[in-house]
Amino acid sequence: MSPFFELIHEDAKTGARAGVLHTAHGDVQTPCFMPVGTQASVKALDAKDMETLDAPIMLANTYHLHLRPGEDTIARLGGLHTFMNWSRPILTDSGGFQVFSLGSNVILESPKGTIGSRLDSIARSTTSLQNDKEKQPSALQNDNKRGHGALVSIDDDGVTFRSHLDGSEHRFTPEIAIDIQHKLGADIIMAFDECTPDNVDHARAEEAMERTHRWAERSLAAHALQLRSLRLRSGQKYPQHLFGIIQGATYEDLRKKSAQFITALPFDGIAIGGESIGFNMDETRKTLDYLAPLLPSNKPRYTMGVGYQPQDFYDVVTRGADMFDCVSPTRMARNGTVFLPDGPIHITNAEYAEDARPIGPACTCHTCRHYSRAYIHHLFKAQELSAYRLATIHNLHHFLNYMRTMREAILKDKIESLRAERSEAKQSN
Fold it and tell me: Which strands make up the sheet holding 159-162, listed edge to edge?
């Protein structure tokens, strides 16, 4: 039987790696980009679209699926793969990032007492919430009135938070997060962690890191216990691979300490989390430079939240990363931003109103083979929902193809020359 992760080739100059993830729902060639299907769906697309795009794996969100429709409902309906009609691998996050992104006021509970600390709203959060601890939940009225108290209460056992949908109170612990992910049935699941923003002080970052470490051990124990007690959804016969997450904010000493701790535990893969990863590429590069030598070569490395633009992939791939996810290509598509080899364009701009060319003249995606820039421009101006679908198809095709080309270059020891070629082409345009 093949190991979960198989390292095929490593570029001697850069450390870029080509490998394969072996899962029950198929192999995933790495490095790979994972489209984000937050609520068991990539926004504006269905499973057939994703198959046509040849997406090797998708990411689904534990927090959102727990709130709606609920993990028990999904389990009764056959698990996440059956529920969303997706036969290929799925990764679920632990829900920690979303919980800690709920708002700006966070109450920290510790044996020393209650400490009030203000967290800056995480830039990648998609939900804007009110920060009134005492306000009672009210009925959901419309999409613009979703916040009902964004307070999150953190203690050593777990996190208590309020739903952004209806204000109802919920509790996540490492055990609960693992249980939810078991019921969802994803191929790859994540340990529960505490995500901190960039600007926390060293003491606060260390406290969160140490809590993440304790929760990592508990996540492993819960995972093993559920496997032994067969507390999986009915009929599930395949293994679920658990990843641990390195934290430590922007502090090198904490990141290294966290890497040493997490890599010593029997996780199937290693993730690097935190607000800085992906969002702050200068800090991402710096972090990977000193972490890469500490990471085991026989396990996949997942840099969480990377992919704001395709060029970012070079920065992490050439530092040994294998897996990435980001909402950027889908979110920007819905805002009318589409990617080309030399950078993004805003298809809603007036200059494209009569442009008969496809979005990408050399692109082979469904959108570019059948529709013009003028037509996509018109759909956005007319507020037709098909605009979202067609722009999203193009952007995901661009990102996925970008990654496939990079993998081919790694296998041929040409990743540096590929980067140089793309950089020259961009500058010439």
Answer: 113-118, 105-110, 152-154, 159-162, 169-172
The catalytically annotated residue of 11, 193, 312, 325 is 325
342 given a catalytic annotation:
no
Q: Which residue among the candidates 49, 54, 93, 315 is catalytic per the annotation?
A: 93
Report residues of the chain scoring pLDDT below 50: 103-106, 110-150, 232-234
Q: Which two tokens mark 92?
A: 């679920």
Query: Is the CA virtual torsion 228, 22, 265, 191 positive or negative?
Result: negative
What CATH number labels 5-98+172-326? 3.20.20.105
pTM for the complete prediction? 0.89
pLDDT, tens only, 19-53: 999 999 999 999 999 999 999 999 999 999 999 99
Q: What percent of the chain has pLDDT over 90?
A: 78
325 given a catalytic annotation: yes
User: E strand or H helix at 315, and its extent?
Assistant: helix 312-317
Radius of gyration of the chain (CA): 21
Q: How far apart are CA 70 and CA 66, in angstroms?
A: 4
First-residue to last-residue Cα distance in the chain:
49
Domain with CATH 3.20.20.105 in the chain: 5-98+172-326
